[in-house]
Fold:
Amino acid sequence: MTQPGLETRALAPISAGMTSQTHSFQAEVAQLLKLVTHSLYSNPDIFLRELISNASDACDKLRFESLHDAALLEDAPELQVRLDFDKDARTLSITDNGIGLARQEAIDNLGTIAKSGTREFMSRLTGDQKNDAQLIGQFGVGFYSGFIVADRITVESRRAGLPAEQGVRWSSQGSGDFEVEDITRTERGTRVTLHLKEDAGDYLGAWKLKGIISKYSDHISLPILMPKEEWKEGENDQPGQMVRTDEWETVNKASALWSRAKKDISQEEYDEFYKQLSYDQTAPLAHTHNRVEGATEYTQLLYIPAKAPMDLYNREKAPGVKLYVKRVFIMDEAEALLPVYLRFVKGVVDSSDLPLNVSREILQESRAVKAIREGNTRRVLSMIEELATNDAEKFKAFYAEFGAVLKEGLGEDFANRERLAKLLRFASSTTDTVSVALADYKARMKEGQEAIYYITADTQAAAKNSPQLEIFRKKGIEVLLMSDRVDEWALSFLNEFDGTPLQSVAKGAIDLGKLQDEEEKKAAEQAQEQFKPVLERIKEALKDKAADVRATTRLVDSPACLVVQDGGMSMQLARMLKAAGQAAPSVKPILEINAEHALVKKLEAADAHFDDYAHILFDQALLAEGGLPEDPAAYVRRVNALLA
Ligand code: ADP
Structure:
């Protein structure tokens, strides 16, 4: 086959007959080879990813060494990988002009398992196929994955800096042994030639190869080249076909934005990359881009979108963070890289510590991944804190979209609870916009106030108009209004903020502590005492509905309200769970009565309609907090009976 362009790629003349030797694979290699070909059979494409990654590593190594010895680059400073195939010979080759292998290196690196990681891997093998296949995900299988698709692999190489005569050819059928001979090779670097198996003919097509490259290797920062093809019309009624030209074309994007220095990347480039990544056409609110060094090394480029996705509240949805290992794509939506409550974040993590074959299961358990998740979480929180301190507009926009999911973090991420609590914002009885931070609230607390008071309800309006707030309003005490579905659940994890307890005004008996003077307390006790017989009667009338009936000082304008026991589930949450079809314990609330109210005074005097009055009081209290009477028709009947 003499196609133009192929000459340049033809083998350098071989000085045959030089020291050709046959070596046996180290026992573990033979074992690994068998395992690799068996267990990775179902996803053969990955061999190309592994070999391109090796080629890219070889170029990285050369680039690094050339920093000290520029001569190593010889007359070919542009590092690249070339992919070529020969349909007739059924070969596929991956050629790099990287560091290359000297003879002994080929013997050592391709014939033994030197890496401690792989040795550990071998020692854990059980012989059980399924188990071992899972284990394989933990460790890179690298070069040997070529044998999934090839029944013979030839490696020709020359190490950078060595003379052409010191080239090496390594060759093996992937069973017991490999051969090594000296060759003359003018080109620096390595060519790996796969002699494809009968059933691997797929890989002899440009289209297939390009597909795999764009899936796995687009962001290899090195150009990957393939012979350029052109459409040629058929002659004499023959169908047209793609034919090769002399030129090579780059088939990967060849740019890993995240691996470039921050200062060289413009805002537009960051935004553009986000759009590619997320399929979201709106520019993101913020990004954070860091190279993290230390025990676990990785690069993170994370974005906060400007708009929440439709399925934001689906906790099953994994965060949009892609995982790369050394710029090779590994997986989308790597859920192990961020906690669930930060699922709105999009971005890329590129680790140099993980093997290429890492699986989702392995990610969940890996210590390196745990460190990455913690690092990512800290960075995202810093990004949000930064908005909160420096860009009120953007923070407001952020909070409107994602504030509710951020609250889930209180229950999910104990380590960062304090930081999260500081980021939360609420409406309050004195501020209609969702803008009050817990610290703001604290700063405004009244002299003698010992708790941060809040109320949860279905809507902000219901919260604001709740009878439970009356005494607080009268005393000028601010109460936080919470109407996100997640609020009650989330707040149950936040017992205190900066040393001050949080207290729901709809739970437990009211104790305003020092905010109530002695006289008020005494008056309340007296009322309770005098009122006792009436309370007993109401209690009897409502024994199926109310857990208790007691007099209260929390009401000013309303005759009654419902509260639940301290630590109990609120009526609102119980309703919500029921509406969602979930099992909720039936909450029997406590009816609290305002002994000073005209309606209550009337009830005291009532004889004939005492029962009606009692039930109406209860049902109205329920209505006032957004609930519905158990038997609406009965409620109407009773009201009508009194009106008539
Ligand atoms: P890994 O790449 O994870 O170390 P591999 O089995 O893929 O393991 O490769 C084993 C070794 O062979 C590499 O560490 C490297 O030293 C050498 N090697 C593989 N491919 C190349 C290449 N294209 N150029 C130079 N050296 C290579």
